[in-house]
Write a structure and sequence with these properties.
Elements lengths: L2 H19 L3 H23 L4 H10 L4 H14 L8
Helix pairs in contact: 1-2, 2-4
Length: 87
């Protein structure tokens, strides 16, 4: 399992604790957001096979932040899929 999946799952657990046990709804959003970003980075590096050096170089060339660029790459890949596959 990748370190990004481990971090993503830990953030989801933290979000649930903050939301359900502590009633800290605003703080739970932070953990949920980072869980999504970490899963996107897992997809970029492990499923799309874009190594970290290439990702960073391309990100800088496009003048994007890490979060935005990872989201963009995952979105492009999803756009290539048949929507029926997601029902």
């Amino acid at each position: 399992m990748s370190v990004f999946i481990d971090k993503s799952q830990a953030n989801l657990v933290a979000a649930e604790i903050l939301k359900n046990k502590e009633a800290l709804y605003d703080s739970s959003i932070h953990c949920s957001y980072y869980a999504c970003i970490q899963m996107q980075l897992h997809i970029v590096h492990n499923k799309l096979k874009i190594d970290k050096q290439k990702f960073e170089a391309d990100r800088r060339n496009n003048k994007d932040g890490t979060h935005g660029y990872a989201s963009k790459l995952v979105g492009i890949e999803l756009g290539k899929k048949d929507r029926q596959d997601f029902k």
